[in-house]
Structures are given as structure tokens and as C-alpha cells.
Amino acid sequence: MRFTIILSTLLLCSACNETSSQPANGIPAVTPAASAASTASTAQAGTLVLPDIKEATQAFLEMMELQKYKDAELKLGTCIPAVQAKHPGQVACTVALKIGAGTSETQADFYRQGNKWVAQPSSSQDLLPFPDPKL
Predict the structure, then answer these.
(1) What predicted TM-score, i.e. pTM, was given to this entire model?
(2) Could you count the other beta carbons within 10 Å of the beta carbon of residue 126?
């Protein structure tokens, strides 16, 4: 099954990186609840703008080509500014994808493209905790 291979590969790659529970760059993590007020306005310096649960889930499912899983839900854990960001406002987050009774943890980058959130594999794994105690 393609989903199993892709997600297993992501999880394996994530598990191979040594991480700490505190980001090495000292930038505090921001949760979706903490950024809710800033989502409507332009992000100020040092403030991360994050997708809400529905937006993050949709972006992640599209990245993984898993749109058929309508009951899936993605939970964001620790989020930091993305390393080697190619898009303005790009953030890297630990995520837990729940489909049915199963949950898998990995990392993903999120950025806005117009009015839509887009997810991509993260290059910030060394700065994100894994496993993430927030998840």
C-alpha cells in the first residue's frame, strides 16, 4: 500500500535524526492556539503563523496523496521557523496523523500559497523533537 510505504519512510527518516526536546536555535515553539490571533493579520517578526487543524490536515493529506481519508486529522506539535525556507513564513512542525485508530508521528513544513496552506517534507528535523512530548 503506497500510504504505508511513504509514511513508514518518513517516520524512519525522522527517527534516524538525533534531536533534543528544546530547539537548538532557542526559538520558542508556537502552537496553533497561540497563533490564532495572528493568523488573521500579517505575522510580526518572531511570530509564527500556523494553519488550523483542518488546513494542516488538508495540506498534509494532499502532500501524501491521501485525500481519500476523510476522517483523518493532523495534530501540530512543536513548530519553529523552517530551516532553508524557500517560501515566506514557512514553518516546520512535528505532526501526528490520526487515521481511524492509528497514529503516526513525523515532521512537515507548512507555508501559505495564496489562500491555501501547502505541506512539504521538512528539512528541519535536527531542530524538532522526536518523539515530540507535545504530541
Answers:
(1) 0.66
(2) 14
Contacts of 45-54 spanning 24+ positions with Cβ under 8 A: 48/79, 48/80, 48/81, 48/89, 48/91, 49/89, 49/91, 49/112, 50/76, 50/79, 50/91, 50/93, 50/110, 51/76, 51/110, 51/117
Q: Are 56 and 39 in contact (CB under 8 A)?
A: no
Res 122 pLDDT > 50: yes
| 46-59 per-residue burial string, b: 16 or more CB within 10 A, e: under 16 | eebbbbeeebbbbb
- CA distances for 42 relative to 9, 38, 39, 85, angstroms: 35, 7, 7, 18
**Residue listed under C-alpha cell 496552506:** 117
Instruction: Please answer whether residues 46 and 26 qualify as being in contact, where contact means their C-beta atoms are separated by less than 8 angstroms.
Output: no
% of the chain surpassing 70 pLDDT: 66
